[in-house]
From TrEMBL, chain A:
Domain Thiamine pyrophosphate enzyme N-terminal TPP-binding: residue ranges: 20-135
Cofactor binding note of this UniProt entry: Binds 1 Mg(2+) ion per subunit. Binds 1 thiamine pyrophosphate per subunit.
Keyword Protein transport: no
Domain Thiamine pyrophosphate enzyme central: 210-344
Name listed for the protein in its UniProt record: Acetolactate synthase
Enzyme class name: transferase
Necessary cofactors: Mg(2+); thiamine diphosphate
Domain Thiamine pyrophosphate enzyme TPP-binding stretches: 406-553
GO cellular component, one term: acetolactate synthase complex
Entry-linked Pfam families: TPP_enzyme_C, TPP_enzyme_M, TPP_enzyme_N
Molecular function per GO: acetolactate synthase activity; flavin adenine dinucleotide binding; magnesium ion binding; thiamine pyrophosphate binding
Record-stated family: Belongs to the TPP enzyme family.
TrEMBL record, chain B:
Keyword Metal-binding: no
Entry keyword set: Amino-acid biosynthesis, Branched-chain amino acid biosynthesis, Transferase
Protein name listed in UniProt: Acetolactate synthase small subunit
SUPFAM superfamilies: ACT-like
Lineage: Bacteria, Pseudomonadati, Bacteroidota, Flavobacteriia, Flavobacteriales
Amino acid sequence: METLKKEKTASTKQVTKKISGAEAIIHCLLAEGVDLIYGYPGGAIMPLYDELYKFQDKLTHILTRHEQGATHAAQGYARVTGKVGVAVATSGPGATNLITGIADAQIDSTPMVCITGQVARHLLGSDAFQETDIIGISTPVTKWNCQVTKASEIPEVLAKAFYIARSGRPGPVLVDITKNAQIDEFDFSYEHCTGVRSYKPYPKPNIKAIEEAANLINAAKKPFIVFGQGVILGQAEEQLKALVEKAGIPAAWTILGLSAMDTEHPLNVGMVGMHGNYGPNLLTNECDVLIAIGMRFDDRVTGNLDTYAKQAKIIHFDIDPAEINKNVKADVAVLGDSKVTLDLLLPMIKNNTHESWHNEFKKKHVIEFEQIIKNDVYPTKDKLTMAEVIEEINIASGHKAIIVSDVGQHQMIACRYAKFKQTKSNVTSGGLGTMGFALPAAIGAKMGAMDREVVAIIGDGGYQMTIQELGTIFQNKTPVKIVVLNNDHLGMVRQWQELFFESRYASTVMVNPDFVKIAEGYHIESKRISERKDLKATIKEMLASKDAYFLEVKVEKEDNVFPMIPSGASVSDIRLK
Amino acid sequence: MEKKWFTISVYSENSVGLLNRISGIFLKRHINIESLNVSKSEIDHVSKFTIVVYTTEDWVRNIVGQVEKQIEVIKAFYHTDEETIYQESALFKVASTLLFDERNIQNIIKDSNSQIVTVSREFFVLAKTGRRNEIDEMYQQLKPYGIMQFVRSGRIAVTKSEMKISSLLKEFNQ
Ligand SMILES: Cc1ncc(C[n+]2csc(CCOP(=O)(O)OP(=O)(O)O)c2C)c(N)n1
């Protein structure tokens, strides 16, 4: 019985002569519309690299400086384009170096296909040189994985891999290909995969559930929307905006939902979660209907579940049935692609404004502005703050840049204060919180959106986790703008130590190298500033540059990010200091 | 929420790595698999996992959601003991001398409804199919006489209600 649906399309390849498995991989990638991949060569993947050499006019391979960088670059590319990112590595250490990026892509639903070389079939299980059980290792962090030991299996497995990576709730897929399968020749033909029997990526929308959702929304006095990346992945930005405007509902975002809606939209009330905005967090526990769209109630968003939105009816829109009732019980669950379900919902929604409810958010914003935002963005103290740097970038880029942030205080500040007009503009490691993500992800983001400004915001700690990717930037002349907000500490951990461990700064003080000299070593234009008077002009200069640019900003060493919901506390217990 | 026994039935494609994927879902949540059986199902080329867990309904629902999410899983269900017909099998290897020397052994065989599978000069083997408590009871009865080897299978179960796999598969082929 057939378990796959296949389709011949215009790009379906039929090569008449026998070709090697390695060449077949190239034809599969081209047929899937891939023209850019990231990777690192080694013994077990050399046949593929030999073909990449021959096909370099059709398929660009970017040599990163570490396989982890290849995965993050592929992720950055996928996040700004919506296409599948591809990363390639050799067996053994090459393959294991991919794991962090794969885990990151899994938890942040990023479409990615990783291809690893493997020792030849007859050596499997013999502890051969650079043999590692990458299928076993990657199983818990992949949407799907598969080992190929015969050349003739390559087209079907890769077609299935791309289909699974991009459909439904996207995610990473790993295909492990033994060396003999890359070398052996076979009659190649390619058909796209359009269905897998045991896999239903797009649940059929249930009209009754949508009607129930509409009734709840129409009757609500204090409705509140929280949207996540599901809106971006489902390309439902227009539908979200229409819903917000028609029903007059204040809407807040999770860190991965950021940029799905113009940050300046009057009904966009900011970020939820641990370092989110005051109003959206507090009022989560005052709304009467909470409409969650394409988000998964992560613990960094909800705080203590026992005190999370207990007063509200919950409507949960999601494409993944396993997310429904996982953390928060839904009164109404609407399964399906966000664009499809919101399109069905919209005609049932009555016009409304909810002005006094919206005013509650404005009042809370005034409190947050007076106590936090003002001091962050318009500081009066000597030392520079992270937020004023972000604000200068907002001004100089006209809210049009793609911001790629790493993990830590600078990430929270970047996400709190960066302004966006356009979707798919905020690239950050949300679910996994992977330090070292931003520099390689910015390379992928830039290559995926050459017409846009890409600014990486990185801490001095995370920067040194993947700093070697400066080599990739240099070699490929990738014009990314790199801003290191240097507080000479692992700031976010230091903040927790200050607040919850009586300021015992265990291993969070960083003695840093001369970052400007390092960038210069890679022939990247670079500058260091530490004074406010230099900020505006330098940011302008950086954005005006046609090439890569490195900027180190020395900021206050012991600033804290507020508001903050201490881990395990209720959203109502959000602290302003 | 109260803990109960649940039988999870998983219909899947016949795929090598799937057992690993499924067991990982339990491992991650520290939920012990009390028994596991993998076999063919009523549909050609479709496998069936029967997994028994002792946990709360919230957890079992969550797990079944995660299991069903795996690409090669066609459908997963969970049922309580009342909703299923279930059995386990056990084999007892016992010294043959007992069969002749101990009158009570013959009573145990008769009362427990077990079968003699084989008899040799040294040992004989009893097979018992039934609920776990019945097998445990027989074990306790035989124990004083000496059990040379004992093994019990995982639970196998069918449900009283329908599990509509065939129609699901038909839908795909349309
Ligand atoms: C790979 C990895 N290791 C450790 C952590 C834990 N961690 C989270 S934030 C942080 C500090 C980050 O410091 P830095 O990059 O300097 O940024 P800052 O917080 O100072 O802005 C650490 C160590 C992590 N998220 N990722």
